[in-house]
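re: that chain from earlier
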Amino acid sequence: MEPENETQTSKFLLRGISEDPNLQPFLFGLFLFMYLVTVLGNLLIILATISDSHLHTPMYLFLSNLSFADICFTSTSVPKMLVNIQTQSKVITYEGCIAQVYFFIVFGVLDNFLLAVMAYDRFVAICHPLQYMVIMNRRLCGYLLLGSWITTALNSLLQTLMALRLSFCTDLEIPHFVCELNQLVLLACSDTFANDMVIYVAAVLLGGGPLAGILYSYAKIVSAIRAISSAEGKYKTFSTCVSHLSVVSLFYCTLLGVYLSSSVTQNSHSMARASVMYSIVTPMLNPFIYSLRNKDITEALRRFFKVKP
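^ sequence. v structure.
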C-alpha cells in the first residue's frame, strides 16, 4: 500500500452483531439484561466472599478476583455496544478503540491465569490436604494474584504499544462489536509481521501455559481420586472441584469454538456472534455455576441478606 493512501486515523466503525435495524431494539434489551445479570451476579459473589469469614480462604479469594475480572471484561465491550445501538451509531474513536484493545486483553488473559491458579489450589487441596494451609499461605496467594495481574497488564501494554505503531488506510470498519487486536492488525496497511509474532508468542505462553497447568493439575487430581477406595469418598472429593471444572470447561470450549470456527467461516457477523459466548455469556453464567453448585456461597449469601433457609 502506497504511503499517500494512508490516513490519520481518528475513528473506527464497529459493525456489531447485526446490521438489521429491526433487530436493534431486541439486541439492546438482550445485552442490557445480560450485562446487568453479569454485574449483579459477580458483585454478589464478591460481597459474599468479603462479608463471610468462612469464605476467607485461598479458593474464594481467587474466585472474588475472577468475578471482578469478569465484571471488567464485559464492561470493556457491552456499554459501548449498547450506546452505539441506542444512538444508531457505529463510531468509536481511535483512542477509545486502543483503550478497548488494552482492557479486553488484560481481563481476557487474566481470566485464563485465575482459572489456572484456582486449578492449582484444587490440586494442593486434594493431593496434599495435610499441607494445604502451609503451601497455600497468604504470601503465596498474594504472589500468585500479583503475578497474574502484573503479567497480564504488561502483556496487554506491549500488545497495545505494538498496535499504536500500525497505520491504517481507508477501510476502517471492524467486523465486530468490540475493538479486538486481531481485527486491527487485519485492517492495517503497514507491515504487521512484528505484531503477528508478538500475538502468536503471547498466545502460546500466556494462553497455552495456564491451560497446560490446568490440565496437569486435573490429571493429578483424577489420579488422586482414583486412589480413594470408597465411592462416597471419591464423590465427596470430586465435588469440591466440580464448580471450577464447569467454569473451565465453559470458558475454554466457547473460546476454542470461536477460534476454530474462524478457520472455516469468513462471515464477520457469525464470528462476532460466536465471540459473545466467551466474552459475555461465560462471565454471566460463572456466578450461577458457583452459587448453585456451592453450598458455602449459597449460605454466605443467605447470611448476608439475612434470609432464613
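Residues 142 and 285 are 27 Å apart (CA to CA).
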